Amino acid sequence: MAQFRAKKLDLSCFVNVRVIRDHTKRKVFEQYETQRQALRYIIRNTTLPPRARAQAQLQLSQMHAYTRSTQINNRCIEGGKSRGVLRHFRMARVSGGV
User: What is the Cα gyration radius of the chain?
Assistant: First the structure.
């Protein structure tokens, strides 16, 4: 996780550690999304030789967990809550965190 964290981070806009972690996960996912899609395409392409597909599968499994879309949780940017968050606004329906 420390390898992806920004060296200088403006902490004034973040409420707690969970929001910082969510922000980092979103940035890392965005950065590696095209690479993951390319590897997944190679793995699923049955016309390619099995060795190339196996190498792509190995590369994909060795990528960091933050590069997966399943690692991203909807979290309120104002209070840091993870439940009852409206996706479009990234805000909790009950804003009691701040």
Answer: 17
* Measured distance CA(92)–CA(77) in Å, rounded: 8
Give dist(CA 43, CA 83) in Å, integer: 35
CA distances from 94 to 2, 20, 37, 87 (A): 32, 21, 36, 14
The answer to whether residues 25 and 71 touch, using CB atoms and an 8 Å cutoff, is: yes
Round to whole Å and give the CA distance between 30 and 13.
20
CA distance 83 to 94: 9
Hey, how many other C-beta atoms are within 10 angstroms of the C-beta on 65?
10
Tell me the pLDDT tens digit for each residue of 12-38: 666 788 888 888 899 999 999 999 999
